[in-house]
Amino acid sequence: MPGRDSTPPDTPPQEEDLASRRFVGARAVAELAGVSRSAVSRTFTPGASVSEETRQRVLAAAETLGYHVNHLARGVSRQETGIVCLVVADIDAAQPSRLTRAITEKLQDAGKVAVLLCVGGPSDDVATTLRRALNYRADATIVMSGTPAQSIVRECLDNGQRLILISRDDRIVGPDNILLDNAGAARQALGLFLRAGCRRPAVVTTELGTPSLSARADAFVEAARAVGLEPAVVRLGQMTSYDNGVGATRRLFTAAERPDAVFCVNDATAFGVIDAARHEFGLRVPEDVSVIGFDNVMQAGWMPYQLTTFDHPVDAIARHAVDLASGSRAARAAPARIELTPPLVWRRTVRIG
Asked: Which of these, 117, 189, 110, 185, lies nearest to 339 by C-alpha position?
């Protein structure tokens, strides 16, 4: 009927054209609050000088308008974006996952934005991934996986991007480096085996040969040879995994001389060694064979394993990485080189000598 609302009651309101929506700017907040634009900026800048009355007027106007600070725009004026890229592979594995989370949380606490870039297959190498980081105009990139070539390192540095390498090859010139004393830990592992009375050591690693894994395996072999022992070495697969630990155990314990001590370059491999030794060969750990791992992942403390291992100082690494990513490179005379000692976590997989 004329004069009556003919709109069906269930008709939804017309959808807003998202393309026409615009972010509220600081100028609009300043006009509504009756203050200067600089007063709006100072209100949202920690530590800046602004009266409490002005602050409250600005905050009220911002809430009314739905205003949010545009950190990217601020970054452009300061020639900083606040973005820090993380380059990582094997993100599902326990250790990379722990470290990624710790770094991301500390970056957020520092007011930074973390962008995760995963290194995939052979065609998606670390150089390709670092070039993606350059496209983001990141302030810094933290490389947790892969070892970049000197050419891409120079390209990043020339474009003003800080590079922080974690447990990578420290012979590359230019980036900051955060390293673990992998060799020292390996020598300590051999010393523990010797004190336990073990004289047939072995080491299990991968064919991949990353700097950290190679340092652990090579130092263990060198330490054993220095005391007149020739350790068995098993390099299996491209990843340090539980399955590779099982496969390595089959090789070691079907050989003519079985080892009585096994140093594994990470905990996942050690779990495979322990389970295969017990369930396929009927061996007792640590009475028949002692085992030491590396990383101290959560499962290392579980009752079936109680693995003696070296702790990966995740919090310390994350703290140093974020400090380096947030700081000014120009303020340092040379790239930083930070070496951390992985502490031993003694449990029950090494027998008492």
From this structure: 185
Range of the domain at 254: 182-312
Token output for 27: 């100028």
Co-location of 301 and 205 in the same domain: yes
Residue 226: give its domain's CATH number: 3.40.50.2300
Cα(339)–Cα(159) distance, rounded to whole angstroms?
Answer: 27
pTM: 0.75
Q: Give the burial string for 104-123 (b: 16+ CB within 10 Å, else e).
A: bebbeeeebbbbebebeeee
Does residue 17 belong to any structural domain of this protein? no
pLDDT in tens, 292-308: 999 999 999 999 999 99
| 77 in any annotated domain | no
Same domain assignment for residues 308 and 200: yes
Question: 190-211 pLDDT, tens per residue?
Answer: 999 999 999 999 999 988 777 8
Q: Please state the three-class secondary structure of 22-72 as a single string.
A: CCCCHHHHHHHHCCCHHHHHHHCCCCCCCCHHHHHHHHHHHHHHCCCCCHH
Q: Are 138 and 81 in contact (CB under 8 A)?
A: yes
* φ/ψ of residue 195, rounded to 5: -65, -25
- Let me know: does 166 contact 317? Beta carbons within 8 Å: yes
Q: How far are the Cα atoms of 16, 23, 26, 68, 127 from residue 20, in angstroms, in the given order?
A: 8, 10, 19, 18, 39
State the pairing for strand pair 344-345/309-310.
antiparallel
Nearest Cα neighbor of 109 from 330, 341, 315, 340 is: 315
CB 309 within 8 A of CB 347: yes
